[in-house]
Amino acid sequence: MGSIETSFNGKFIDLRVGLFMVDSPIAHTLSKGWSLLKWKKSSNFCTNCGQPLVLNLAGSQASCSSCKSVYYPTTSPVGIVSVCDPSNDSLLLIRQPRYPPGMYSCIAGFLDVGETLDDCVKREVAEEVGMEVSKVSYLGSQHWPFPAGSLMIGCQADALPGQTPDPCKMELEDARWFSREQVQEAFDRIKEQPRLRVGKNNDPSQIFIPPRGAIANFLVSKWLNKAPL
């Protein structure tokens, strides 16, 4: 790998880091390419008859060379939601143990079989912070290449008034309400210092959110830009 780095005057880095160091079109290409490579690695033989699979030119479809069965990459849907309390103009953010010090984000989880997006969001909020939400609204989506290819479906939901988050100790380190001023500070901090996302020695009291390019950043910005009720 060293010789390759030298010949291109570059350096190999983790894709989770690299996605936030490039513009949106390149990040999308990297994300798609990684997911296709992961799918190809585990999809070389037909599950119906065991014969080799043949990829199409785009690499996004595989056909059996014998029984002609056709296979496509699996994209796993994930509901991710910004939860707000309109009664006091606050936003709920959560922290997982794997996050770098200081980083908080939005609640997210995979859709169960037979579940609607609304059901997924309400269940994940209940499981992770023990709260009820209503008025689930779709805001946008993003392909995410981990673990092998996910569609992040971004939503906003209103919490029923007066609730206090009770974070699930198996999944979260913390979950709390942040005022509009606190959220704006966290948003501005990552905007000014994008490398906080990969920092290991961050000051944990300096709260920030995922950087531009992550759908959580988009969801937070949408809440910040919406006038309080």
Query: How big is the Rg?
Result: 20 Å
The shape, in one word, is: globular
CATH architecture of the largest domain: Alpha-Beta Complex
Total number of β-strand segments? 9
Count helical runs: 6
* Helical content class: 25-40%
Query: What kind of sheet is the major sheet?
Result: 6 strands, mixed
Q: What is the CATH topology classification name of the largest domain?
A: Nucleoside Triphosphate Pyrophosphohydrolase
Superfamily (CATH H level) name of the largest domain:
Nucleoside Triphosphate Pyrophosphohydrolase
The overall number of domains is 2
Write the layout of secondary structure elements.
Layout: H1 2-7, H2 15-18, H3 24-42, E1 53-55, E2 62-64, E3 70-71, E4 76-85, E5 90-95, E6 107-110, H4 117-129, E7 133-144, E8 150-159, E9 174-179, H5 180-192, H6 215-225
Parallel strand pairs: 4-8
Antiparallel strand pairs: 1-2, 2-3, 4-5, 4-6, 5-9, 7-8
